[in-house]
Design brief:
The chain is an alpha+beta fold and 134 residues long. Helices cover 41% and strands 11% of the residues. It contains five helices and three strands; from the N terminus they run βαααβααβ. It has a three-stranded mixed β-sheet with strand order 1-2-3. The mean pLDDT is 88.
């Protein structure tokens, strides 16, 4: 019996797009840290958590751009700020072969496109600590 491995696309904004995304959609700061390094750490922590429950599905990291999200929103007649649209855009891009498997091998390039090995880059990141409530 041949089994087909499912894949789940995870969209993320590269550093060059993150500040612009926060500017366009300030509500992103409600979900994720503003600092890009902390943002990557939060994503890495979520990936580790999600990976435990995927039952063998391959996670694919897909770099998103503000222009790409806005174009998809226009095409779909959807709200560019919606989480659902970002997820759908990531899935469409992954279907085009634009995803990077997560987790990369320890000696493979990191998913964040830093050109560093994963073991020296995002694999070492801890999730940022939430600010204390006053």
């Amino acid at each position: 019996m041949h089994t087909v491995q499912q894949s789940l696309a995870v969209g993320w904004f590269p550093e060059s797009e993150w500040a612009l995304a926060l500017q366009r959609w300030p509500s992103l700061a409600d979900e994720m840290p503003r600092d890009h390094l902390d943002y990557r750490g939060a994503i890495e922590a979520r990936l580790r958590s999600v990976n435990a429950g995927t039952r063998g599905a391959q996670l694919l990291m897909v770099a998103l751009s503000v222009a790409g999200i806005e174009a998809q929103a226009e095409q779909d007649g959807a709200d560019a700020a919606s989480t659902e649209l970002r997820g759908r855009t990531a899935s469409l891009l992954a279907a085009q072969g634009l995803g990077t498997a997560w987790p990369p091998g320890r000696n493979a390039p990191c998913w964040c496109a830093s050109r560093r090995k994963y073991k020296y880059c995002c694999q070492t990141l801890d999730a940022p600590v939430a600010p204390a409530e006053s």
